Amino acid sequence: MRGNRERMWPEFLEATPSSKETMYMGRLEGKVAIVTGAGRGIGAEIARTFAREGADVVLASLIREEIDQVAEEVRHAGRAALPVQTDITVKVEIAIMVQRTHEEFGKIDILVNNAGTIRPADFLETTEEDWDAIQAVDLKGLFLCTQAVAPHMIRQRYGKIVNVSSMAANGWYMPGYASYCAAKAAVNNLTKYTARELGEYGINVNAVAPGEILTALTYQGQSTEEVEKKLKNSRAMTMVKRIGEPKDVASLVLFLASDESTFIAGETISVDGGRIDRM
Ligand SMILES: NC(=O)c1ccc[n+]([C@@H]2O[C@H](COP(=O)([O-])OP(=O)(O)OC[C@H]3O[C@@H](n4cnc5c(N)ncnc54)[C@H](O)[C@@H]3O)[C@@H](O)[C@H]2O)c1
């Protein structure tokens, strides 16, 4: 037995290319990914990260100029980029975006449901329109994108869907964000539901729940003093005593979009620096 092993090891080593000959293969080499809300913030960072790791990226978002800019960065990383101006609350626009992706690349391996919005308003002041607008983007849009992409992934018997939820889903009291908290909590549940529906076809559905991340979304419409106060408080609320950056979220999304996570399904994973009020 020992003798056999001794004979096998050198043979194995000879068959292994030396480190000089081994080229770095990106963790998403050859994959095609759709990222919604890829024009700025977390979505733009996910698109850049995916491109660096070898994926071609479809940038589906509201603002043309923003996705054109990120598309340039993806191309600069040596990958193909397809910016498609898309409002994810409109089913026909999603259908066109998915069709264009399929025509251009012939497959869809990854969907990141990242697009999201907020409309902070006191609970009693929140209008029906405010409520609906949040639900339409943060929940319905995510559902519609998943539903449009799933048949392609089912045919391929392969797919990765990553939903961007939020710490707001954890049942916390976040004044001014009633509709947002409700939508994100529903995203966590929908993540489990779709993971169960699609798992047997080789499709993993998971979610990430970011804490406070420095982007336009969190601090829009606030004065410098308000932002500074909020940042100080947010730092204190994490175990690692810092504010999150888009790349913190992008690294986790990359893991869930890669083949390193094929035995993870239906999970919502926090990326919040260890919020002490979550523990
Ligand atoms: N920034 C944070 O602190 C934080 C925390 C938790 C969760 N999140 C979530 O992360 C995701 C990204 O947030 P961000 O901070 O990068 O926000 P952001 O405002 O910087 O970017 C949001 C992107 O979504 C796009 N978008 C908005 N409505 C859309 C629509 N109807 N159709 C298509 N695209 C649309 C915007 O154009 C933009 O490109 C959101 O789902 C958000 O809820 C953010």
The CATH topology comes to Rossmann fold
What are the secondary-structure elements, in order, as H or E? HEHEHEHEHEHEHHHE
How much of the sequence is in beta strands?
A: 5-15%
**Which strands sit side by side, in order, in the main sheet?**
3-2-1-4-5-6-7
Average pLDDT score: 92
- The rough form would be described as globular
Question: Rg to the nearest angstrom?
Answer: 21 Å
| pLDDT < 50 runs, ≥5 residues | none
Quaternary status = single chain
Helix coverage percent of residues? 40-55%
* CATH architecture call: 3-Layer(aba) Sandwich
Biggest β-sheet strands, sense, barrel: 7 strands, parallel
Protein described:
The chain has 279 residues and is of the alpha/beta class. It has 9 helices and 7 strands; from the N terminus they run H-E-H-E-H-E-H-E-H-E-H-E-H-H-H-E. The protein binds nicotinamide-adenine-dinucleotide.
Topology:
Elements: H1 2-15, E1 32-36, H2 41-52, E2 56-61, H3 64-76, E3 81-85, H4 91-105, E4 110-113, H5 128-156, E5 159-164, H6 178-198, E6 203-210, H7 216-219, H8 224-236, H9 246-257, E7 268-271
Parallel strand pairs: 1-2, 1-4, 2-3, 4-5, 5-6, 6-7
Helix pairs in contact: 2-3, 2-9, 4-5, 5-6
TL;DR of this structure?
With 279 residues, the protein is of the alpha/beta class. It is 48% helix and 14% strand.
List the main descriptive attributes of the protein structure presented here.
Rossmann fold; 279 residues; globular; binds nicotinamide-adenine-dinucleotide; 14% strand; alpha/beta
